[in-house]
Automatic annotation (TrEMBL):
The active site is at residue 364. This is Diaminopimelate decarboxylase. The gene is lysA. Substrate binds at residues 298, 332, 336, 365, 393. Its EC number is 4.1.1.20.
Length: 440
């Protein structure tokens, strides 16, 4: 759950506790903070800061853990591309057997370039354009998740005109509160997503009679960064009831897209349990002869990424520690009041008496703040830090606000690392811009 930074207290983990809770991180007395087998200072020496760093091993390990939890279920993992859409990340998951959940033409094309087969791609999203629907049908993807009656009619018309049959699932809105941040909850009646639960049965029967459409099942997604299994149990229970009702009316229902949203621990807590999540699936859909789909995103990639930054200066009687990373790089704290662990890269900077500081960026917005009243050892100009758990909704949501070029990205795999995105050049910021002749 996105949480406003707390005042210093015993509830806030210190540097050692943050590292101990993350098996992919370690602090070496000489090399400093190490991710997998690579000291992060080594990458910062080459790339400078700010810079993103991802751990391939962590992604594979978390996908393996998630997949193992689903054992015994007829279930497939579709990685939620919106969490981190870099081609190298998609290639890692494709190589490990995951499909993709996409929400735009760009994500669909990225998934295909990364090697994910059309049969393992599901297209979600509340506002698919005609162009996107045509592309999805031309590619022959597994399923379009329909969000409204208007979209269903649109898909029918386009598919008929292309002489194709669109496999669709109706995304229902179960009116379940996921207990997460208001900006990332998607399963309540007042949210823009999905078809009202009471309308779904009639619309499903209608879909069965439309040309160019084959209804195959239902879909739902109730939000992101969900830490309790109770909302899943409630939503899946309602979905199972609807499946039984649809079948009783003579409809064919073979697929259930169960969404994602499983939360991670941004402090020193373990986050949500894939085993408990799988238990909710078994309780609701066990014995129903359904092919299940799941759409984890943050849970797979969030802990696998860090944002490296350097201290520019300390001001205000050492109250404000100003970094060279900013809200244009990692917007989650500014947008959601999200809490991220912050750890010095040098072993010597990670020890010593801790005091409360505000960790801020250089952007001209008060909201450009990563942490308030954070208890950290003293940091001086030039010190480097890692902002933890930045692998999801980090680089993918970054911008060039204040004409700040996008940061480079490195990928670690064991003791190897490579640059997978170069630092954007200043001239590239305006490369596509034109000054009209009448202003000359």
């Amino acid at each position: 759950m996105s949480v406003t930074a707390l005042a210093p207290s015993d509830a806030e983990p210190d540097v050692a506790e943050l590292i101990a809770a993350r098996p992919h991180l370690s602090m070496n007395a000489l090399d400093g903070l190490t991710l997998e087998g690579v000291p992060l200072n080594r990458i910062a020496d080459v790339l400078g800061t700010p810079a993103w760093v991802y751990s391939a091993g962590t992604m594979r390990a978390r996908l393996a853990e998630f997949t193992a939890a689903l054992a015994g279920l007829d279930a497939q993992v579709h990685y939620a591309v919106k969490a981190n859409d870099h081609l190298a990340v998609l290639r890692i998951f494709a190589g490990a057997g995951a499909g993709a959940d996409v929400v735009s033409e760009g994500e669909l094309r990225r998934a295909r370039v990364a090697g994910i087969a059309p049969a393992h791609i599901v297209f979600s999203g509340v506002g698919k354009t005609e162009r996107e629907i045509r592309l999805a049908l031309a590619e022959g993807i597994a399923q379009l998740n329909v969000e409204s009656p208007a979209e269903l009619e649109m898909i029918s018309a386009i598919a008929s005109g292309m002489d194709r049959v669109a496999r669709v699932a109706l995304r229902i809105n179960p009116d379940v509160d996921a207990g997460t941040h208001a900006k990332i909850t998607t399963g309540k009646a007042e949210n823009k997503f999905g078809i009202p639960y009471a309308d779904a049965a009639a619309l499903y029967a209608h879909a069965a009679g439309l040309p160019g459409v084959e209804p195959v099942g239902l879909a739902l997604h109730i939000g992101s960064q969900i830490l309790s299994i109770a909302p899943y149990r409630a939503a899946y229970g309602r979905a199972a009831e609807l499946v039984r009702a649809l079948r009783a009316q003579g409809n064919t229902v073979t697929h259930m897209d169960c969404g994602g949203g499983l939360g991670i621990g941004y402090r020193d807590d373990p986050g949500a349990s894939p085993a408990a999540f799988a238990g909710a699936l078994r309780a609701a859909f066990g014995g129903m002869d359904l092919k299940l789909m799941t759409e984890p995103g943050r849970w797979l990639v969030g802990p696998a990424g860090v944002l490296l930054a350097s201290v520019i200066l300390v001001k205000g009687s050492e109250r404000f520690v100003v970094l060279d990373a900013a809200m244009n790089d990692l917007v989650r704290p500014a947008m959601y009041d999200a809490w991220h662990g912050i750890v010095p890269l040098a072993a010597g900077n990670a020890v010593g008496p801790a005091g409360p500081v505000d960790i801020v960026g250089p952007v001209c917005e008060t909201g450009d703040t990563f942490a308030r009243n954070r208890m950290l050892p003293a940091l001086s100009a030039g010190a480097r830090v890692a902002i933890l758990d930045a692998g999801a909704y980090g680089a993918v949501m970054s911008s060039t606000y204040n004409a700040r070029p996008q940061a480079p990205i490195a990928l670690i795999d064991g003791d190897r690392w490579a640059v997978i995105r170069d630092r954007q050049l200043q001239t590239e910021l305006w490369a596509g811009e034109r000054i009209p002749e009448f202003l000359e």
